[in-house]
Design a protein that fits this description.
about 10% strand, mainly alpha, 4 strands, about 120 residues, elongated, 5 helices, two-stranded antiparallel ribbon
C-alpha cells in the first residue's frame, strides 16, 4: 500500500504541474494577467510568452512542489519552501491550481488501484 500511495501522490504532483504549465487550473483556464504584469514579465523577467498564465515568474514556486508518503495510508503534495508555499497560497486564491478535479481524481484512483494490485 505504501508504494501505491507514494506513486499516486507523485502522479498527482505531475498532474498539477503539467496542467499549470499549460495555463490551466483546477476549473479550466487561468484568468489573464493584468496588462501591467504582462509588461513586467516581458521587460523585466524576459519571458518569451509573457501573457501565458502559468504561475511561473521565477520558477521557485513550481520547483518546490514535492510529494511524499507520510504514513502507510497518507501521502501529501506540498511545498518544500515556505516562501513558495506563501506564493502558492496567494496564487491559489485567484487562480486555483493546487488541487485536482473529478476527472483527475479518477486518474489518480486508477493509478492507486493498478499499483495496489500489482
Amino acid at each position: 500500500i505504501d508504494r501505491a500511495i507514494g506513486l499516486t501522490a507523485a502522479k498527482g504532483k505531475d498532474i498539477i504541474l503539467t496542467r499549470t504549465k499549460k495555463g490551466v487550473g483546477v476549473n479550466g483556464s487561468f484568468k489573464p494577467y493584468s496588462e501591467g504584469y504582462v509588461t513586467y514579465r516581458k521587460n523585466v523577467l524576459k519571458k518569451v510568452s509573457p501573457s501565458l498564465v502559468n504561475l511561473n515568474a521565477t520558477g521557485e514556486m513550481v520547483r518546490n512542489v514535492q510529494s511524499r508518503t507520510k504514513t502507510s495510508r497518507i501521502a501529501e503534495i506540498y511545498f518544500s519552501n515556505r516562501n513558495a508555499a506563501e506564493k502558492a497560497a496567494f496564487n491559489d486564491r485567484t487562480r486555483p491550481f493546487f488541487s485536482v478535479n473529478g476527472g483527475e481524481e479518477d486518474k489518480l484512483q486508477k493509478v492507486f488501484v493498478r499499483e495496489f494490485f500489482k
